[in-house]
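Lab notes, practical 5.
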Amino acid sequence: MSWYDPDGAAWTYVSRKLISARLIVLWICMGLPLIAVIVVGALTTAWVWLAAAVFVIGGAWGSWIVYRQVTAHAWIERDDDLIVKKGRLWRSVTVVPYGRMQYVEVEAGPLSRAFGIAKVQLHTASPGTDASISGVPESEAARLRDRLSSRGEAQLAGL
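Output from the prediction step:
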């Protein structure tokens, strides 16, 4: 048992489709400057190809980081709270008691909808709480929103 893995709990990991969605965004952001560098390199000096290599290496490194981030993102629902863990190098664990939740928001942009995933954002009275779960399958996101809302209402009713 550690602070990052309480009681050897059975974590629910986010969908691997989030990797593809994030890689598309990454390679669009890296690919456009890469194409510009290649065009400039073809028209001018060969030294510009060094910049193209830097973009390719940066994109490969970014792809590895995306894979590592997504495979470390998980959540678990316990009797009194929800725990969200993120990160491998800079680990974070957020524990949100159901009684402290004000509302649960589910959002999905066009790329997320194309992959059938959504982001579940928990809002509490504290503005510093960043409890969000990206890459939740759409059907599970709706069920999670309903479960968390009903548990939050039940906890508030007990006060």
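Observations recorded by the TA: The longest strand covers residues 117-124. Residues 17-43 form the longest helix (27 residues).
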